[in-house]
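Q: A reviewer asked whether we had any structural model of the full assembly, not just the individual parts. We don't, so I'm hoping you can provide one. Inputs are below.
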Amino acid sequence: SVTVYGLVDMGYAYRTDNYDASKSGRNGIDSGIASGSRLGFRGVEEISPGLKGKFVIEAGINADQGSAAQGGAAWGRQSWLGLDAGVVEARLGRQYSPEYLIYGDIDPFSHGQVAKASNIFQHVKTYDRINNAFYLTTPYFGDVFSVDAIYSFNRGGDEAVANAGDKRFYAIAPKLQFGKMFKVVANYSHDYDKAKYTTDTVVELGAIVDFGVAKISGAYAQPKLESTPVGAAKEPKKYNRYLLGATVPFGNFSLLASYAYSKDKNDLDEKATQIGIGGTYAFSKRTDMYLGFARIDADDKIAVKYGVSDGSNTFNDYRSGFNLGVRHKF
Amino acid sequence: SVTVYGLVDMGYAYRTDNYDASKSGRNGIDSGIASGSRLGFRGVEEISPGLKGKFVIEAGINADQGSAAQGGAAWGRQSWLGLDAGVVEARLGRQYSPEYLIYGDIDPFSHGQVAKASNIFQHVKTYDRINNAFYLTTPYFGDVFSVDAIYSFNRGGDEAVANAGDKRFYAIAPKLQFGKMFKVVANYSHDYDKAKYTTDTVVELGAIVDFGVAKISGAYAQPKLESTPVGAAKEPKKYNRYLLGATVPFGNFSLLASYAYSKDKNDLDEKATQIGIGGTYAFSKRTDMYLGFARIDADDKIAVKYGVSDGSNTFNDYRSGFNLGVRHKF
Amino acid sequence: SVTVYGLVDMGYAYRTDNYDASKSGRNGIDSGIASGSRLGFRGVEEISPGLKGKFVIEAGINADQGSAAQGGAAWGRQSWLGLDAGVVEARLGRQYSPEYLIYGDIDPFSHGQVAKASNIFQHVKTYDRINNAFYLTTPYFGDVFSVDAIYSFNRGGDEAVANAGDKRFYAIAPKLQFGKMFKVVANYSHDYDKAKYTTDTVVELGAIVDFGVAKISGAYAQPKLESTPVGAAKEPKKYNRYLLGATVPFGNFSLLASYAYSKDKNDLDEKATQIGIGGTYAFSKRTDMYLGFARIDADDKIAVKYGVSDGSNTFNDYRSGFNLGVRHKF
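A: Here is a predicted structure for the entire assembly that you could use as a starting point for your response.
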């Protein structure tokens, strides 16, 4: 009644800076460059006809150092209990946000490699996993319409006494699919900081068209952050963010390419553009190789840092990167 | 030769205060409300006829946040190696105290939910798990008499150099059973602090009568704490503690009720009373739902805090609570 | 495709000081005295004829306290991904150094018990496991010659930005075997500290002769540590270290004995000698008992501390020790 599963991803990552010539690069043998290394335990129980019990406990692993990923959380990738009644499944625990799951599809690099979309779409990284979450998900009704919704009393740590410093979070993500070819997804996230009385929201829309010979995907996102006030008027910081991606399979090889762009809407002229190109080669169903390159052009020397990230690390101010590695599922 | 097992318990818990109206309640989606969420590995080897090797390695999981329970100990629920010779089994490692195991039977809520007996019987919480422990347990001789004993060089952290700050702990728990209907249990715990030269002891007696239609249980405990001196004479703090519990099964449903009372014996008039009521409903052998309510009345505003606890949290000064959740074994 | 395996080792360890009578001993019920307690997950995939994918994820466990060993690293014993092409196997991740693997063979106590060779051969402890490592290993070509090599951008923590504080490490270990009877091994380790501009090296040679009725092993090592400069001339600290070991099997019982000696080459007269004697008794293939005694004689009151170590602990200044325990594989 328990399945042990996982993935180990190890490779080489290099990051450097195309802006500041005095900064030398970083060489690393890193874990989880394309997909986070993990060890998981999951199970399903048929409680009664039409009702299933489910659970997932998943540890993120920095296999380059034998430590726990996700900032040291022992089972920090996912840990939840679910009841699946067919028309709706309810889950309680630490879980992915609907937004993070959506971009797993839209981003050709699927949250991995130096070229991951969240280098520019930083709001996706902020809301990757939600603690203390109540999640509802449906199947595709009429094979067309599905919806995911999530609520948390505190998306970060444990709920505080009197819930004083909690970050109340909810999100709703409707999805449409038309056959295997066309998919439209949307998301609205609402993040209320009880201590600061600020609300950050994200509205976004994505689409995926799968022509068979190529998969084209795109997204538009509009984060609005009251937690980052701008100027004397303390206007919330706002962004327009665009993503365009392509995945082109040739047998065991897949070519991956993406373009991501972010610009503030507060006349600060904080622009950032990322181009990413890469590929994967499948040795077998369970093992593949990957390779990727990314470069960011940005004018935001002062404010927000946009940088390519590698496996073990997240954001920093290096502006281009390369990686090469092997990924093994079990 | 290894069995992977575990339990995920997730639910909603609410705590509030019936004393101080200005204090707002705490809402939480919590892990391990009724039973601590866990992932375990265990095995048995038939070394020779009459001799078995055994082990348990068990991780406590805060599934609401993907972190390790038991204060961050990776395998903090249990981790021990045992040799079972039939007439006696010896175990070495981090283990439950005999007392904690006894109250798992006496407390109708079995150390879980907001109404757990250890909210009032705080000494049971202090000695839940013992590090560096040598444990001896016997089967019921003549189907009637059994005894558990435990010794530790330091019940908390690792044994110090020169054992200077260690807390030497031992306990002995004789048990009698008369058929399936009647059980009497006793425990004596002895906790010596080598740094402070103080000894805390607990003497306690419990009984369980199972009428089939209902199970009635009760306990009396007398903690005596030299580590908490009282007044100018520095008398050890002493308590009388009483517990009464009932479990009434109706098919898949079980009604749970308990009453717990603590009063100091140092004429400080520190009284605390808890009433707890709840229930469990079994969907299947492996999955059930639970619901519970607890309320504490206490006069001890100044000294010891008695509060209802929920899954992820332990003691605090909230005085009533409610919880509702689902528990799944695997 | 996943194998769950492990080992639990629990016992009693006593350490005391034969130099300073005022120092009282340390008593402990400890984990991992003879072999580190662990829980592991491993798998092999036949990717194609002649190419295998492999992984190991292994958690070290202080079973006496339910905590993670290796300084709290969740999967700190080993975590790596490998591709095995037959003539060479490449592995990426946190791994044993070639040197540590070699001494697992040469040291009759195989890195365990109070008498472990690394009490004196401290350089072996320093380089036990290497983070961010790229490892190459070959089978024995012509059944005679094999070589292991390792490289790491930073043997300690994660590779730093600009790799500023990294400790670049590499080692190469050629090995010769002549039938089952005779084995010669060598190792060269090179550890460059990028922040301090110092390089520590070790050159060492070992041999094992297995007569069947007894196995005799020996090693000579020459650490040279620029990171520990000596005197006004800031000469690198240098040592000569010698190890002699014997393993004598009598049925299920094995007698273990070792002699280890270290002396500086900087005319500081820092001498340390360890004698160790012990034994193991196999109850079954998976479970055994062990017993050991060690005593160190040293003149180095001021500089380097040489001390016997027990399971959970490493170096300290206790000079003799005894241990007794049980070890169970699963």
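A: Points you may want to mention in the reply: The mean pLDDT of chain A is 93. Chain A has two helices and 18 strands.
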